[in-house]
Design a protein that fits this description.
The protein is of the alpha/beta class. A seven-stranded mixed sheet has the order 3-2-1-4-6-5-7, with helices on both faces. α10 packs antiparallel against α11, α10 runs antiparallel to α13 and α12 packs across α13. The longest helix is centred in the C-terminal third of the chain and has 29 residues. Bound molecules: guanosine-5'-diphosphate-alpha-D-mannose and manganese (II) ion (MN).
Length: 388
């Protein structure tokens, strides 16, 4: 059978199904425990996008409140509602990317699942991208709190200050002039997003700025004002780890070409620990007149406690320990570090000659401890490492 007859046969036996007009817009909604917002979200999209051939892809990171099950219930009757449930993974940015990869729509929009973004703006954003509004079209239309007509009523006091500062830092770092680069609300040409996709860091919350920074060609961007609303239900997922990840993302976009950023972070935390170690030993021994033999272990324990606290609040936040478990965890951590700490104390004591060179001895000991901890961390986490 020739290729030609195969195709003709297919054409005659399977005419292409007519399911109405082709898909125009995919709305990507990242969700983590948003069950209380799903009904309002679906109703809002249904109202706002009337007349447009759209689908919504909810990308859920295995919420424990039944978000995915609820979405499937709705999706069984409403084919516009789709769900991607990810197991063992976390992160708003990577969730959005997977949603975009899963659609055939020529235009995508990204919106939070808690009603803070105004879904009524979606048609305007869609038309800004396609050019249906007579504006000539663009690659990216951003829902912006910080252009004329926009507002951030959902943000007050410290949150707004942080948001505005992050905006300045981001623009300075990426050499952009976007009024609201921290926005999680935007529409884009699917192919413009796809051009960025292979280069995305996908770390943390800030997918928009990742897309802009990772695009191989400069993007034509428009900003459209909207009012950021208070959350409909549930709680925010922003925590110190998210802020930390934002910092890592910025570093990665600035320096990622030259050095592995994860290593930089480890080195940074190590240097911090070292500074604390030397400060405690120095102040006890030099200024409080406590003997080196006592000041040294105190400095070692302080550095260990600091590194443990850092790991518990940032790096391993998902597995964070509190109360008695936090203390038990510290004992375990100290046990793992013990050989390095003992090596540290042994070498420092051996090298200690007199008061003026105490820091040489302390530093040499610290190198032993850091080397041990690094090796132990690599060994212990090698088995547990998961894709992000
Ligand atoms: N799949 C997935 N995985 N979704 C997540 C995750 C995650 O790890 N973390 C948060 N989300 C979802 C939430 O369920 C919500 O739908 C949306 O991402 C935003 O999370 P919030 O916790 O509500 O964040 P926010 O209100 O502090 O900030 C949001 O709004 C800002 C203003 O536009 C974020 O979207 C920011 O990126 C945005 O700038
Ligand atoms: Mn929110």
């Amino acid at each position: 059978m020739t290729l030609h007859s195969l195709t003709t046969q297919r054409q005659t036996t399977r005419p292409s199904p007519d399911l109405g007009s082709p898909l125009a817009l995919a709305v990507i909604v990242p969700t983590l425990n948003e069950a209380g917002n799903i009904a309002a979200m679906v109703a809002g999209l249904d109202r706002a996008l009337d007349g447009l051939a759209w689908e919504a892809i909810f990308v859920d990171d295995d919420s424990t409140d039944g978000t995915a099950a609820l979405l499937r219930q709705i999706g069984a009757y409403d084919r516009r509602i789709r769900v991607i449930q990810r197991l063992g993974r976390r992160g708003l940015a990577s969730a959005v990317t997977e949603g975009v990869l899963a659609t055939a729509a020529p235009v995508i929009a990204v919106i939070d699942g808690d009603m803070q973004h105004d879904e009524a703006l979606l048609p305007k954003m869609y038309e800004a991208v396609t050019g249906d509004d007579g504006g000539g079209g663009c690659d990216l239309a951003i829902g912006s709190r910080y252009v004329d007509g926009g507002a951030a009523s959902g943000f007050t006091g410290v949150r707004e200050l942080i948001s505005r500062t992050a905006t300045r830092v981001t623009n300075a770092t990426l050499r952009t002039t976007i009024a609201d680069p921290m926005s999680g609300f935007f529409a884009a040409r699917h192919d413009a997003f796809m051009a960025s996709a292979p280069h995305l860091s996908n770390i943390g919350f800030k997918i928009l700025m990742d897309v802009v920074a990772s695009s191989p060609a400069p993007l034509a961007i428009r900003e459209i004002p909207y009012t950021f609303r208070p959350r409909h239900a549930g709680t925010s997922k922003l925590d110190p780890r998210v802020a930390h990840e934002f910092f890592v993302l910025l570093l990665e976009k600035m320096l990622g070409r030259y050095v592995p950023v994860r290593f930089l972070m480890f080195a940074g935390a190590g240097l911090f620990g070292l500074a604390i170690n030397l400060m405690v030993i120095g102040s006890l021994f030099r200024h409080a007149g406590i003997s080196f033999a006592v000041a040294l272990p105190a400095g070692v324990i302080a550095a260990m406690a600091f590194n443990y606290f850092l790991a518990n609040t940032l790096t391993y936040r998902d597995l964070r320990l509190r109360g008695a478990a936090f203390l038990r965890g510290f004992v375990g951590y100290a046990a793992v570090c013990a050989p390095g700490a003992i090596g540290n104390i042994f070498v420092s004591t051996l090298l200690f000659r007199d008061g003026s060179t105490w820091w040489v001895a302390a530093l040499a000991g610290a190198v032993i401890a850091v080397t041990w901890t690094y090796a132990a961390t690599l060994l212990l986490t090698a088995k547990r490492r998961r894709p992000v």
